[in-house]
Amino acid sequence: MDVRALLMGLGFAVMWASAFTSTRMIVTEAPPLLSLALRFALSGVIGVLIALAMGQSWRGLTRVQWRAVVVLGLCQNALYLGLNWTAMQWIEAGLASIIAATMPLLVAFLGWTLMGERLRPMGTGGLLLGVLGVAIIMGARLQGGSDPTGIVMCFVAALALAVATLTVRGASSGGNVMMIVGLQMLVGAVTLGLIAPWFEDWTVTYTPRLVIAFLYTVIVPGLLATWVWFLLVGRIGAVRAATFHFLTPFFGVATAALLLGEDLGAGDVIGVAIIMAGILAVQLSKAPPVRRPPPS
């Protein structure tokens, strides 16, 4: 992996993980789905305007890219983030980031079972390690009183993101990346805007923390992280790009502990370490073998 891809991946992991903390700040003071719809509307408009200023146009999008706009708008934005934002009314930001980190394992599992991708013994072992790590964390958290409904919602959200990741392969190869980013957020805004009024009331407790967290979420995880993710997938592929999600628990838990004062138990530490080892094993199992030159 080249240095540029490494820096892009690390930057994405930090931005993506920090979104859990800023989301937790928002949903404790405002309705999650309506807030998320507003965030997508703002991010989408800004993204489209930036794309137009860069000379990009929706007329130039390929069929694959339009499919990515719809799939990401529904799976990543409406489902993944909608479920996560709703769940974080009841569960901690650190726990949500840990569950989200299982996405690369789900990508590998779906690719293996549904798309016929080969998985070496090391990859199979990685999947088993991931399941073990999740079981340890969930056991500790459920004993500690974490809400089961919120946990289930986060796992369904991770599955939706895995489907989106597999579906958008090749979406960035035709250019117009920022236009795709903006349009898929507008799809999420419309979807959640239609759904939200049926499930929640617009009751907001306005505080400086809410305003700062909302603006940060619109700009950094909303626009910048999504743009970097598209570029990263186009540069190194969906499976290798998904590797950087294994850093989400570390950065997510650290940010939540620093800004929200959340505790981290021994079960969390052990489970995260096992999950990270499992994800690493899955990714290493997909790496091409090193061809050594014959001895002279």
TrEMBL record:
Give the keywords, sorted. Membrane, Transmembrane, Transmembrane helix
Question: Could you list the residue ranges that cross the membrane?
Answer: 37-54, 66-87, 93-114, 126-144, 150-168, 180-199, 211-232, 239-260, 266-284
Superkingdom is Bacteria
Report one GO cellular component: membrane
Location(s) in or outside the cell: Membrane
Tagged with keyword Glycoprotein: no
Q: Which interval of the chain is the signal sequence? A: none
Q: What is its main location?
A: membrane
Domain EamA residue range list: 5-138, 149-282
Topology of this chain in the membrane: Multi-pass membrane protein
Q: Does the keyword Transmembrane helix apply?
A: yes
- Family membership: Belongs to the EamA transporter family.
Cross-referenced PANTHER family: EAMA DOMAIN-CONTAINING PROTEIN, INNER MEMBRANE TRANSPORTER
Q: What is the designated name of this protein?
A: DMT family transporter
Gene source species: Paracoccus liaowanqingii
